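Case study 2.
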Amino acid sequence: MAPGGRGGPGTRQRGAGGAGQRPAARTGARARKGGPGRGGGRRLRGTQRAPLHRGTDGAQGDRGAGPSGQHRGGRLSLRCASSHPRAWAALLLILSVTACGYHLRGSRQAVVALPPVHVGGDRSLALYPVLRQALQDAGATLVDAGQARLVVLLRGERSDRRVLSVGGNARVEEYELIYTATFEARDGAGRVLLPVQTLRKERGIRFRKEAVNAIDSEVRQVQDDLRAAAVREILQRLQGVAHAMKEPGP
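Prediction:
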């Protein structure tokens, strides 16, 4: 009986233990299955769905944002890439049109036709024939003083040279050539259109020991270039005078 008595309580303890485990197991199963324990099931579903719905889960968030970001970024990169060829094409078109002699409106002032011109003053100057030829090339008609509406009077020109740098043995290494031209402009009645003014052009040249005999020739060439530059500026100023002469008075 002692073993049986001991066995009775032991059996009851095992039974109680089993009963306690079975409800706990059923409660856990209900919680996992979302069965009769609705409150617990809702809380579990809420905690599981929140990451999927709100995008807080790493995997879902990457999949949701990744394709969208890549799609928008892809369109932007294609749009930027496609704009470069168009910009280059437009630039090449402008350069080709300009090279052919055409210019966009407003990019350069239109050339005004000069009225009949007379060139007077000191005709012994080297500037005199150069200016006459340039006026003819510009389309101007050269006439006598009595028929001219625009009279250009040459007052003088001068070519100077000064030393810019000296090397070893006091040898000149670089010169600066200076050219000046003085002129004025009047209308046919003698009224001053451009007062007496002097244009100044400069350019430096280097002295080369291996070309000592060619230095004089180079100096003359540079002087001619400076004179031509002065003539171009004279023409520009005469263009301004001609434009003012065509504008109606107040």
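DSSP finds five helices and four strands in the chain.
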